[in-house]
């Protein structure tokens, strides 16, 4: 899983240079865990790290350049993304 997180963090940094490496990694981890938690709550079987990585990559492709704008508007994530740079 760590390799997926590193690759996705690098991909997000290319898509959104406004993010620091620490914030990009935090975003990737949040997207990853949110998807897995939502899937589990919905009763879906775990599909593996490759499946989750592909979904997070799709989210980065669609919304990665705007993620830094989202943090300030959503209190659920703001405290995780605004406290520190790393």
Structure description:
There is one protein chain. By secondary structure, this protein is mainly alpha-helical. The chain is built from five helices and no strands. The mean pLDDT is 86.
Explain the layout of strands and helices:
Layout: H1 2-15, H2 21-41, H3 49-63, H4 67-70, H5 75-82
Helix pairs in contact: 1-2, 1-3, 2-3
Uncertain residue ranges: none
Please describe the biggest sheet, giving its number of strands, its sense, and whether it closes into a barrel.
Answer: none
Which bin fits the share of residues in helices? over 70%
Which percent range describes the beta-strand content?
A: under 5%
Number of helices: 5
Mean pLDDT, to the nearest integer, reads: 86
Helix/strand-derived category reads: mainly alpha
- Counting DSSP E segments of at least 2 residues, the number of strands comes to 0
Roughly how many Å apart are the termini? 20 Å
Q: Taking Cα atoms only, what radius of gyration do you get, to the nearest Å?
A: 13 Å
Gross geometry: globular
What is the ordering of alpha helices and beta strands?
A: HHHHH
Short description:
This protein has 86 residues and is mainly α.
